[in-house]
Design a protein that fits this description.
150 residues; alpha+beta; 9-stranded antiparallel beta sheet; 4 helices; elongated
Length: 150
């Protein structure tokens, strides 16, 4: 009777461990797209190729993804409610967005940039009249703050 219980327990442990592995199709998607499970959670698209994701700032960086010198480029500062800096944001001449010198994928429409880094969503208005309305927000908490042009 004890042998049956031990064998049953071993089989159950083996079946449970297999449930945590990713399947072959998903692994192939990750390899083709150049994404990792972590970068996918940050916005890397597994339906795109590694080259497309690299241009968007994910996966293996290409030479075009290296930051340009920040000379004559405006910087935005994401501030916490206590006035400390959360992030330094820069948009280069090619409309690529950098957060703390790390390139992020951004969408631009109507003079507004929207992007995400980790759990923080950012919205920047490039129009000088709307610029004071730029903000950031944490998706998992109620933290939010303003983004100011420096």
């Amino acid at each position: 009777m004890q042998i049956k219980m031990v064998l049953l327990g071993l089989m159950a442990c083996t079946a449970m461990n297999a449930a945590y592995a990713i399947d072959a199709k998903y692994r192939q998607q990750l390899e083709r797209s150049g994404c990792t499970q972590t970068s996918e959670a940050q916005g890397c698209d597994t339906s795109k190729t590694a080259e497309e994701n690299s241009k968007a700032g994910f996966g293996i960086p290409d030479t075009a993804a290296t930051p340009e010198p920040a000379v004559n480029q405006p910087q935005w500062i994401a501030e916490r409610s206590d006035g400390t800096t959360l992030a330094t944001i820069r948009i280069d001449q090619q409309q690529r967005v950098w957060v703390n010198e790390t390139r992020v994928a951004a969408t631009q429409k109507n003079g507004q940039f929207e992007f995400r880094q980790g759990k923080i969503d950012y919205t920047i208005f490039t129009d000088l009249e709307k610029q004071p309305q730029s903000f950031w927000s944490d998706r998992y908490s109620t933290d939010k703050g303003k983004i100011v042009l420096r």
